[in-house]
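ligand=magnesium ion
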Amino acid sequence: MQDILKNYIDGQWLLSPGGKTFANENPARKGEILNYAQASEPEEITLAVDAASAAFLNWKTFPVEERQRLVGEFLRLLAQAKDELAVAVSKENGKTLTEARAEVDSALLEGGYHQRQISAFAGNAVRNDKCSLAWEDYHPLGVVGIISPWNYPVNVMCRKTLPALLTGNTIVFKPASFTPWSAVMMARLFEKAGFPAGVFNCVTGMGSSVGNALIADSRIKAISFTGSTAVGKKILSAAGANLVRTQLELGGKNAMIVMNDADLDGAVDATVKAGFGCAGQWCTSTSRVLLQRDIAGAYLEKLAERCRAIRIGDPLDSAVDMGPVAGPGQFKTITTAIERAQRDGAQMLCGDAAAQSGGYFIKPTVFTGVTPDMAIFSEEIFGPVLAVCEFDTLPEALDLTNNSVYGLSSAIFTRDLTNAQRYIDAIDTGMAHVNIHSGFKIPEMPFGGWKESGFGLPENSRSGLEFFVNRKAVYWKGI
Ligand code: NAP
Ligand code: MG
């Protein structure tokens, strides 16, 4: 029997009294169980919130330098654990080892940014003739609930947790059920870094059970969630009932526009990277490609050749470019969407489910002749599948791009500055890229979506810290 991953509550490693567990399967080798996680009960969320509430009374009084020191220690341990953590992520999620290492690097880069930025994170003092001084004070909120998805189990969790801790909040963290192993490994790093008991708590279990219990607990002061739009809407309505603030990073259907003056090789590179990296399972991946009609043929020829060269297999093998999708549910959703696109009349340029039956593998798949009425144009698939449309003019391409309930990220490839500026002005997405793929990000810039792709303050940048504080306007007059 493999290990059972324990919950981390109030500084203790606990087995769930209910004794229910679920298997963590390696998606590259169907039936290989990596370990078991606990299907915890709502009562364990209550215990974790009890611990986080008690710990908050002390943690909020810690000088910011001390919080910075502890987060710095966590980051040092994270860097040290990079290879071990990357293997766990690769095994439980299916992304390649290179992609998993890059994810840890991204968590380190963003964590370091927030750790430095907190020093400068203070309101401006203003002199005024009616009072001597006025300034803005920031206060932590209290216990914060963090719910993360399986596709970037390290990076997304750190992007929420570290700013929350730096600003003086305590945490109850519920990881995705596909990736409990890396979550528990990170909980161990928080313990090892020396955070006081109860400041960081981790409870595994089903979203419908412990996730629900977390958002329903009236002592939670904020929820930071990354996941699907459907679950995000449920969280928003539950949180709204208690006036709890939410930061929701949700789904996407990101488009890349390729103009006829673009560097075609650069555009194809970007499509391969953003379309098929992590088997297309990242929120800012490219899933729609809009081609100006006169270069469509040349572009698609290059793209098909690159797709056929992508080596699929065990993500731990360094010769492999693309691993499996994350599990049976993902495999079913993606293959169903592929079948639907074929029925709807889109043409498959390359792709389909891969021949290897040992794991949940899907070949890089490209559909051409896609029209806006097809499901593949509008629905998020979250897999290595691209929908390609052709257009004649830039306004047409912008209309196609904005024709979506989502508004997370987008990109344009062009050498023409006027095209680029018109795109930046007109696009309805939280991230806009000119000659850079749709998944590119740096910690100094806000990371969040418009429309049904996001709600509340974005992560990263200054707003990544701002989400986790209450403001107090202080007016001061000497006696
Ligand atoms: P998901 O099904 O919405 O799950 C996300 C998290 O919510 C998981 O931890 C899940 O737990 C939990 N959950 C499910 N039902 C819940 C409920 N009723 N109450 C509270 N929590 C609940 O999403 P996913 O499949 O893990 O991730 C893929 C989605 O995430 C895609 O739509 C993708 O676009 C989006 N995403 C967005 C961003 C962004 O920054 N915008 C980044 C990454 C991913 P279980 O695992 O136990 O179900
Ligand atoms: Mg798994």
